[in-house]
Structure prediction request, 171 residues.
Amino acid sequence: MSKEIIEDGKYVELTYKVIDQISGGVLTQVEFPLGYVHGTNEILAPAVMAELEGKAAGEVIEVPIDCNQIYGPRDESLVITDRLQNVPEEYHEVGMSILMENDRGQTKTFLVTRVDKTSITIDGNNPLCGREVIFRLEILLVRDATDEEIQYGGKVEQRPDLEGVTQVPIQ
Prediction:
C-alpha cells in the first residue's frame, strides 16, 4: 500500500515549531495537532504550504522563512513606551494583547513586551517581524478529506448523540 501524499483535497494533521535561526530558541509551537484541508485554506505562510506538497505522514520538514517577506520590516513607530500609571492595570503583564483603534476606526493588536516599576512598552509589530525563522513541521496524518471537511476547510467534529436525553430547564 502506498503512502498518501499531501495534495489538494487531502486532510492533513501536523504539529509545528517556529525556531529563531540566530538563537535556536523556539518562538512558538502548536500544542495540539492542527488539521486542515490542503488547497482549501491556507493556514500557514504560502512558502510553508508549498513545501508541504508531496510530503507524507511521518515526515518532518524544515522550511526557512525570512519574516520580512511576510510581515515587512520592523516599524519602530509601532513601539510605544508610556508611564505605567497611564495604562489600565489588567495590561501590566508581558505577553498581554491590547486591541487599539486609531482615529480612523482601524484596529491593530499590540503586545506588551516590557513592564518595569515605572513604565510599560507595547509593540504593534508582528512578533516574527524582522526575524529569520525555521518552521519545523511534523506531518502526522494524510488522508482523503470528506466532502464536509472540504466545505469547512478542516475536521468537522461529530455532535454528541442526544437521542433520548431529557433536558432539564435551568431555574
Q: What stands out?
A: The chain has a mean pLDDT of 89.
